[in-house]
Amino acid sequence: MIILVFNITWAAPWGVLVLYATEHLGMGPVGFGALTTASALGGMLAVLSFGRLERRISYSTLMRTVLSLEVLMHLAFALTTTGWVALVIMFVFGFYAFIWGTISTTVRQRLVPQELQGRVASVNMVGVFGGMVIGQALGGVIAQVWGLTGPWWFAFVGSALTLLFVWRPISHIVSAKPAIDESDAGEE
């Protein structure tokens, strides 16, 4: 459910990101490319630092931090009118998005028995892509009615409410007892 709702709220402004970058921020096509590059650079830094973060910070704290950054990213994009600020936001987004992807996959795979991994991963992907399709359609409608920052405000409110709803369960999810592979259980 987290992935579905967060992808709806995430994809709403992403569906109009090109227009947001070129028209609202006045960055042009090269500026839009720079935004995606900043995100990729943040992701590369996340890959290099994940092991260190994982050793020092609990998964529940990392998950809450990353989801909180998601909420703040939407707010920051709703408020900014400056290209260089948007570049910094996208760098941070790339960083925490890669952290989220690694943690959520790790936790899911740890908790799901091996024989169900494919099915659960499929349901997760339906949530990811279904949320993106719904979110982008909503984003286009919202932008037409309330302007190019409207989808960012929608994403901010929607992701903040979702985060409030999942804040406590995150620690229960992360601390749940891992699934035991039956082939491993016989060896003990």
Query: What does the main sheet amount to?
Result: none
Q: What Rg, in angstroms, do the CA atoms define?
A: 18 Å
How much of the polypeptide forms β-strand, as a percent range? Answer: under 5%
In CATH terms, the superfamily is MFS general substrate transporter like domains
Predict the CATH topology. Growth Hormone, Chain: A
**Counting H and I runs of at least 4 residues, what is the number of helices?**
8
Task: Characterize the overall form.
Answer: globular
Descriptive notes:
With 188 residues, the protein is mostly helical. It has one domain (13-171): Growth Hormone, Chain: A, CATH 1.20.1250. Helix content is 85%, strand content 0%. The protein contains 8 helices and no strands. It has helices spanning 2-14, 17-24, 28-56, 59-79, 83-111, 117-146, 150-175, 182-185. α1 packs parallel to α6, α2 (17-24) packs across α3 (28-56) and α3 crosses α5. The longest helix has 30 residues, at 117-146. It is globular. The chain starts with a helix and ends with a helix.
SSE order and pairing:
Blueprint (H helix, E strand, L loop, with lengths): L1 H13 L2 H8 L3 H29 L2 H21 L3 H29 L5 H30 L3 H26 L6 H4 L3
Labels describing this entry:
188 residues, mainly alpha
